Amino acid sequence: MWFTKMHDVLAFLSHLSEYLPAILVTAGVAVLIGCAVGCACSPCKEKDEIFHREVY
Fold first, then answer.
1. How far apart (Å, rounded) are the C-alpha atoms in residues 5 and 13?
2. Looking at residue 54, what is its pLDDT?
3. What is the DSSP letter of 54?
4. 3 or 27: which carries more pLDDT confidence?
5. Which keywords does the record carry (predicted)?
6. Where are the domains of the chain?
7. What is the pLDDT of residue 4?
8. With b meaning 16 or more CB within 10 Å and e meaning fewer, what string describes 8-21?
9. For the chain, which terminus, N or C, has the lower number of CB atoms within 10 Å?
10. Torsion, Cα of 33, 35, 36, 41 (10° steps)
11. What is the chain's Cα-based Rg?
12. CA 14 to chain CA mean position, Å
């Protein structure tokens, strides 16, 4: 009977949905920190050539 297995899957997903906002926020913060570290550690040289500072 496939619907008994579907019930188990839906029950698992309903329990997972309690933690879903925390998982998404944690993943978002991790991506943000990863991007910030990547930009600080290895600046892009093409961007420096395009957006160079002009000193007067």
1. 13
2. 60
3. -
4. 27
5. Membrane, Transmembrane, Transmembrane helix
6. 2-52
7. 72
8. eeeeeeeeeeeeee
9. C
10. 120
11. 23
12. 22
Long-range contacts of 34-37 (CB under 8 A, 24+ apart): none
Place of tokens 């930009």: 39
Q: Which amino acid is at 27?
A: A
Tokens of 9: 């899957």
Smallest CA-to-CA distance from 24 within 36, 32, 15, 14 is with: 32
Indicate the DSSP class of residue 19: T
* Predicted confidence (pLDDT) per residue in 11-27, tens digit: 887 887 788 889 889 99
pTM reported for the whole predicted model? 0.51
> Who has greater pLDDT, 35 or 38?
35
Distances (CA, A) of 49 to 5, 33, 40, 41, 56: 58, 25, 17, 18, 18
